[in-house]
């Protein structure tokens, strides 16, 4: 899940219009697209127009349905009744407050919660750096760690390496397997 510029979390994007009565095509940008079926309103961060920022809008959902085969939702919003109204919302990001994200299983974290964590060697107590990026590889993620001397090192996000993640203290404790940090 990408993070928006206003510390809200991006969960979707309005990618187009549908029909002539103001319906919109919503592309989910979340691992949990079913969340849209339970949303009463959408908080839309509108794209800039000619370099001018537009204020966000929160609009009540009148109808939301999944469009099979297209991985899109078709949504009708209160106050949007024409294709022209809908065109104004094209490109808008659908965001939620961080506390409204879907709860995760224990030991699973949102990428934006992992970014910036201080990484500490569990065995020595040495500060190794800060998590700067997360690379999904299919089998497991890989954390990019920026060391105090500016080097970029990688560690796999596996149980044998990541011993503890303390989001409140903003610390990740890791056990460096032989040859991993060299």
From TrEMBL:
Record-given protein name? Ribosome maturation factor RimM
* Keyword Cell membrane attributed: no
- Give the similarity note: Belongs to the RimM family.
Key words of the record: Chaperone, Cytoplasm, Ribosome biogenesis, rRNA processing
Organism this protein belongs to: Thermanaerovibrio velox DSM 12556
One Gene Ontology cellular component annotation held by this UniProt entry: cytoplasm
Under Gene Ontology molecular function, one entry of this record is: ribosome binding
Against Pfam families, the record matches this protein to: PRC_RimM, RimM
Record's comment describing the protein's domains: The PRC barrel domain binds ribosomal protein uS19.
Classification via InterPro entries: PRC_barrel-like_sf (IPR011033), PRC_RimM (IPR056792), RimM (IPR011961), RimM_N (IPR002676), RimM_N_sf (IPR036976), Transl_B-barrel_sf (IPR009000)
Q: Which domain of life is it from?
A: Bacteria
Q: Which GO terms describe its biological process?
A: ribosomal small subunit biogenesis; rRNA processing
- Per the record, the gene is rimM
């Amino acid at each position: 899940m990408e993070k928006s510029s206003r510390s809200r979390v991006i969960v979707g994007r309005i990618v187009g219009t549908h029909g002539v009565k103001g319906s919109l095509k919503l592309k989910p940008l979340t691992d949990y697209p079913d969340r849209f079926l339970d949303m009463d309103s959408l908080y839309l961060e509108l794209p800039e127009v000619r370099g001018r920022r537009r204020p966000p809008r929160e609009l009540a959902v009148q109808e939301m349905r999944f469009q099979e085969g297209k991985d899109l939702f078709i949504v009708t919003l209160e106050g949007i009744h024409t294709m022209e109204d809908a065109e104004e919302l094209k490109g808008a990001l659908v965001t939620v407050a961080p506390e409204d994200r879907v709860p995760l299983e224990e030991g699973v974290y949102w990428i934006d919660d992992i970014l910036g964590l201080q990484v500490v060697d569990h065995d020595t107590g040495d500060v190794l750096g800060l998590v700067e990026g997360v690379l999904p590889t299919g089998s497991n993620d890989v954390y990019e760690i920026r060391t105090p001397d500016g080097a970029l090192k990688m560690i796999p996000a596996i149980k044998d390496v990541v011993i503890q993640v303390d989001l409140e203290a903003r610390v990740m404790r890791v056990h460096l397997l032989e040859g991993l940090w060299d």
